[in-house]
Amino acid sequence: MTNALIVIDVQNDFCPGGALAVSGGDEVVAPINAMFGDFDVTVLTQDWHPAGHSSFASSHPGKSPFDMAEMPYGPQVLWPDHCVQTSEGAEFHPALQTGPADMILRKGFNPAVDSYSAFFENDHETATGLEGYLRTRGALQLTIVGLATDYCVAYSALDAAKLGFEVTVDLAACRAIDLDGSLAKALTGMKAAGITLRG
């Protein structure tokens, strides 16, 4: 069975010094680089927001980063401006090897809908096309790593499990934001969905 490595959002803005820095975010780079040769298919995802994205707190007068807002598709955390298209913050961490990637998937480019998952936008309906690519390549076993454990990694893993993929999350190559207990909630949810948590 073909196996795939899905590397989620290892970008400058999610690493120390970035606009939405995840504690220890840069620590995932070395273990991820070491994994590339072990998989038949490698996909890198990249948060790719237009300026003024609806998930940015700056787009909502009177709101601050990490406040909640009600969107047409449901509740949404409002984030600091981050991973704005073509900005240095949106670039992959400079030490991440991008050469092994068979595919780079950009997400979050719809200004009206955020996209945590590599498979669906946050409306849970609009597909990114990743499922079709993986099935075309015959990749049914997925290992998911990257940033952040409790948001884009967990959402991607949960969607992959719902779609029928066999999913492992390698926690040694992930780091979390852990906003108001979000890490514990994400780990519990992934276990309940039958996702293998390793590391």
Summarize the structure in words.
The protein is of the alpha/beta class and 199 residues long. 20% of the residues lie in helices and 25% in strands. The protein is built from 4 helices and 8 strands; from the N terminus they run E-H-E-E-E-E-H-E-H-E-H-E. It has helices spanning 29-35, 130-136, 149-162, 182-192; strands at residues 2-8, 41-47, 68-71, 74-77, 103-107, 139-147, 166-175, 196-198. The chain has a 6-stranded parallel beta sheet. Helix 4 links the parallel strand 7 (166-175) and strand 8 (196-198). The mean pLDDT is 97.
Mean model confidence by pLDDT: 97
**Can you count the helices?**
4
The SSE order reads EHEEEEHEHEHE
Structural class by sheet pairing and helices: alpha/beta
Number of strands: 8
Shape type: globular
Q: Which sequence of strands runs across the widest sheet?
A: 5-2-1-6-7-8
Helix content: 10-25%
What about the largest sheet? 6 strands, parallel
In what range is the share of β-strand residues?
15-25%
